[in-house]
Amino acid sequence: MNDRFLRACRREPVDCTPIWLMRQAGRYMEAYRQLRERYTTMQLVKTPELAVQITLQPIRAFELDAAIIYSDILPPLEAMGLEVEFLDSEGPVIRNPLRHQDDVKALREPDPRESLHFVLQAIHLARLELDGRVPLIGFAGAPFTLATYAIEGGSSRHLIRTKTVMYREPETWYLLMQRLARFLGLYLQAQVEAGAQALQLFDSWVGALSPADYDRYVAPYSQHVIQTVQATGVPVIHFSTGTGGMVERIAAAGGDVIAVDWRVHLEDAWRRIGYDRAVQGNLDPSVLLGPPEELTRQTMLILKQVANRPGHIFNLGHGVLPQTPVEAVARLVEIVHEKSQR
Amino acid sequence: MNDRFLRACRREPVDCTPIWLMRQAGRYMEAYRQLRERYTTMQLVKTPELAVQITLQPIRAFELDAAIIYSDILPPLEAMGLEVEFLDSEGPVIRNPLRHQDDVKALREPDPRESLHFVLQAIHLARLELDGRVPLIGFAGAPFTLATYAIEGGSSRHLIRTKTVMYREPETWYLLMQRLARFLGLYLQAQVEAGAQALQLFDSWVGALSPADYDRYVAPYSQHVIQTVQATGVPVIHFSTGTGGMVERIAAAGGDVIAVDWRVHLEDAWRRIGYDRAVQGNLDPSVLLGPPEELTRQTMLILKQVANRPGHIFNLGHGVLPQTPVEAVARLVEIVHEKSQR
Known about the structure:
The structure is a homodimer of 342-residue chains.
Chain A lengths: L3 H6 L20 H9 L2 H6 L1 H14 L5 E2 L6 H5 L4 E4 L3 E4 L6 H5 L6 H4 L1 H14 L5 E6 L1 H10 L7 H9 L1 H25 L3 E6 L7 H20 L5 E5 L6 H7 L3 E3 L6 H8 L4 E6 L8 H15 L5 E5 L9 H14 L3
Helix pairs in contact in A: 4-8, 8-11, 9-11, 10-11, 11-12, 12-13, 15-16
């Protein structure tokens, strides 16, 4: 059993740096594109056998050190009563976004073991299929990031509706964040019961906030989710993007591993986060579109920054881009393992 | 003559903190919207009398401490041979984006005193009209930000084409950056000759890069522009967004004043930048959409962070949003002046 990834989460010595990639199962792989021709994203997410098949695709193709369950961050919002739809042209759309405090009060909090059974079943089956080859990561969106979808009704550049609720209706905001944090905590606990060996909390949009707003309006709720989950004993990766100005505050909200994007120098970030945490990152995904020499050079730069300190998990700063050549992914995995040998 | 702004640029003591706002002339003002009903952005930019009128609108409406010439960052690209068009729906579009090294070689570098005469004439007339009331700021886009427009053909989320040129065709990239830096240096010098009393270099998209890529592919060219301009003796404000992870590198590339967005704690940023520079910022523009108490609270937070250290210019972290109520702008200017009195 390859336990490099879990050892790195606990900052234990490893034979070489573990690597996995956000969106390692995705459009850049022919096998995934073939499935997407026949099924919508939500069909794939809701059919455990297919989700497992996709989860395993990159594990079979590359020497990755962890699998992450194929799913999406929006099913919990659907379980809570929002109508989620994926439009290929513009990403996810929510048909009945939250507009009033009553909409927040009307949100449901059904037992995730029933309402999100398809995710838990996929985790259970993926563990069987992986058969100990590499650990399996479960995940959820963080309360803030899910709140933006619920309020904006989809992706949004400036998150103006979200911030307007925060500033103008703090009671509505706090109520929404409380309910999301509670439900997400239970959902992630259920993922651990189903077999997830580590969890990643995706706070993808929180980089839109000032550090002061993060501390006041967001951190306590991320902290609630992380503490709920840490009670199960599995490591939690706390991921965000665009937060180079406040990595220490992200770390203060919790997480065994702090995942940063490429907009910050990894060793600078680690110093600010504190060496009592592991770090994950942080190659710019677009470097995989460049020539092999540039990929090698930039990968080496990151490995040198952290100088083999235990507790580094190599990853991109965000998901694999759809136009990425599979050879580049294979090469990256090889370089990381080879050049980080202790 | 109100010289608070220029004194703060030089880190000299002031009676209270100076304030101006990016996009202080813009859609949130009724007078501007009326002009935009009759003219396109480019017509306004290219008609000095109208550009001056717009430049003065916010100075007449609020007690701002500096004016910034009404213009756009794209006219220099047009002067160099690119066909720029503004579509209200999707922002600027370039009809003949750069695709090959030959396209870069074919760029023109005409004397900005002729090719961009309309901007210089607007600056000249605005100085007359301002009559010493407040200083006038000129500006240009930074080489990187203009390169992204020239290559992507418009705004772009991931800047994939731009980064692909950087990584795959470094010679083409360096040639483009050299030519942009040279032309922008001359353009900004011409703005000073025309009467600009300070200059702001807008590197709006550079936050998409890793610190290592910034140092290698961008910093030398921003540095060239800034050094060229500093030879004239006017202060240069170096602005970027999304660079909370690398403010010290932005500062290393130059600038008398380093302008940061709201994604970083201002005093943290200043410490990293060094107290031998002035700083500008950094309220989240969306706070102006909130209630008065929240605006006061957040403005006070920023003022307290820098604790009246000479060399702080108050501004937003990015431009005024179109939906901003004018009363909020008036209130902000008042709070900053009142609460920062020495």
